[in-house]
Design brief:
The structure is a single chain. The chain is of the alpha/beta class. It folds into two domains: 125 residues, Alpha-Beta Complex (Aspartate Aminotransferase, domain 1), CATH 3.90.1150; 232 residues, Type I PLP-dependent aspartate aminotransferase-like (Major domain) (Aspartate Aminotransferase, domain 2, 3-Layer(aba) Sandwich). It is 42% helix and 16% strand. It has 16 helices and 14 strands. The strands form three sheets. A seven-stranded mixed β-sheet has the order 4-10-9-8-7-5-6, with helices on both faces. It has a four-stranded mixed β-sheet with strand order 1-2-3-12. Strand 5, helix 7 and strand 6 form a beta-alpha-beta unit. Helix 4 runs antiparallel to helix 13. It is globular and about 60 Å long. The termini are far apart. The relative contact order is 0.15. The N terminus is likely disordered.
Length: 429
């Protein structure tokens, strides 16, 4: 029997009265479902008590371009947005979104398998198929959901997902949702991958998940050697996450797997629109002849509202422009080489010996000094991402710098100057 509104009020009021009867000490000491977060709360409070600004509560007051924003009234260079190809302000992309908003409204209010497939959703999937040269493409509402949906649907109870120990959280969560057995191998270790696969039952079905670029350190996977090791074992399919590789790796910008020549050996490619494409959404592409059946059985696809028409219009336009983005890719690589060398020459400890991607990770001594360095950079007009354990490997604290093809040579020089000033002030260099 449903309660009347006044009955609900009475019950809520009674509960509040009961809670108010406890002393403040008793309330604080009470154990509930939030208690497991107490160490994190204490760590955060201790950090903020040092006077440092909260690194995870930044508000962009104004975004002027792919590389410039205003934060608390100060003009700030953006070096932590993953806007690798600078497509967020591309005039054609913005115009496509505005037109779709006018023509189709603000949203679909439905799942892709019901009323949520508009013309634009088919157009962006067609753009993906043309971009990747595949027969199949599925678009999800986020990149996280793409991994969650594809992995959990492909690998279920009794199957195995074999993954790099440094895999993204969405990959791990895809395993948990599908109830597959998780087998981890040491980061980028071909030998350990081969050994782990060799221990699994030969008749078991296995999905091996790799990433082209690993987002924390910006290092790339040795995909040819890994593919060769995987193909020694039966019943294996390969999925490569190219979230951070799409746009600037390979002759066509498809990712590390194209750059390293293993396109024909990869069964699935997962990616996101939030990086090089410059908007929001995720996808999976494949040449598997049964790929389309996933639309009917993939729960994060079936039970999630589809992307708004304006979003898929911007994504489709951006993807087709990225097919001709060779000059942008070349400039982005030049920026990466310049920044990496400059930071190395200044004495910073970096996540890779050589520039491997548009991500350059600067290793900090600890969280406190990392936060101090992050704040010093912000005060000087430079925004980067502060990354902390457990998201980072080996309990490292990192300042993740992610370059954009729209960063000018002058901006990269200014970035290095700010990093030098802040590094000396904090005592990192």
């Amino acid at each position: 029997m449903l309660l009347e509104p006044n009955e609900r009020f009475d019950m809520t009021d009674a509960a509040a009265t009961a809670n108010d009867a406890r002393t403040p000490v008793e309330t604080l000491a009470a154990r509930d479902l939030f208690s497991k977060f107490d160490p994190l709360i204490a760590e955060r409070e201790a950090l903020l008590a040092t006077g440092v600004r909260d690194p995870f509560a930044i508000v962009m007051d104004e975004v002027k371009s792919p590389t410039q924003a205003v934060i608390k009234g100060k003009d700030t260079i953006l070096l932590g947005t993953y806007n690798y190809m600078g497509m967020t302000f591309d005039p054609d992309v913005v115009a496509a979104g505005k037109k779709a908003l006018d023509d189709f409204g603000a949203g679909t209010t439905g799942s892709r398998v019901l009323n949520g497939t508009y013309q634009g959703h088919k157009e962006v999937e067609d753009a993906l198929k043309d971009f990747y040269g595949t027969s199949g493409a599925m678009v999800f509402s986020t990149g996280y959901q793409a991994n969650l949906g594809i992995i959990s649907t492909l690998a279920g109870k009794g199957d195995y997902v074999v993954l790099d120990a440094d895999s993204h959280a969405s990959i791990y969560d895809g395993c948990f949702l599908g109830d597959a057995e998780i087998v981890r191998f040491r980061h980028n270790s071909v030998e350990d991958l081969d050994k782990r696969l060799g221990r699994l039952p030969a008749d078991a079905l296995k999905l091996v998940v790799l990433e082209g670029v690993y987002s924390m350190l910006g290092d790339v996977a040795p995909l040819p050697d890994m593919v060769a090791a995987i193909r020694k074992h039966p019943n294996c399919m390969i999925l490569v996450d190219e979230a951070h590789g799409m746009g600037f790796f390979g002759p066509n910008g498809r990712g590390v797997y194209e750059e390293q020549g293993v396109e024909k050996d990869v069964d699935f490619v997962v990616g996101t629109f939030t990086k090089s494409v410059g908007t929001v959404g995720g996808f999976c592409v494949s040449n598997h002849p049964k790929f389309e059946v996933l639309r009917l059985v993939c729960r994060p696809y079936v039970f999630t509202a589809s992307l708004p028409p304006s979003v898929v219009a911007t994504a489709a336009t951006s993807i087709r422009k990225l097919m001709h983005g060779g000059n942008k890719r070349a400039h982005l690589w030049e920026n990466s080489r310049t920044l990496h060398k400059g930071l190395k020459d200044l004495g910073f400890q970096l996540g890779t010996d050589e520039p491997q991607s548009a991500i350059i990770a600067v290793i900090m001594p600890d969280l406190t000094r990392g936060a101090q360095m992050w704040e010093a950079l912000l005060k000087e007009g430079l925004y980067v991402n502060l990354a902390r354990p457990p998201a980072t490997p080996a309990n490292m604290t990192l300042l993740r710098c992610s370059l954009c093809a729209e960063h000018s040579e002058e901006e990269v020089g200014e970035i290095l100057s700010i990093l030098e000033t802040a590094g000396k002030y904090v005592g990192i260099i």
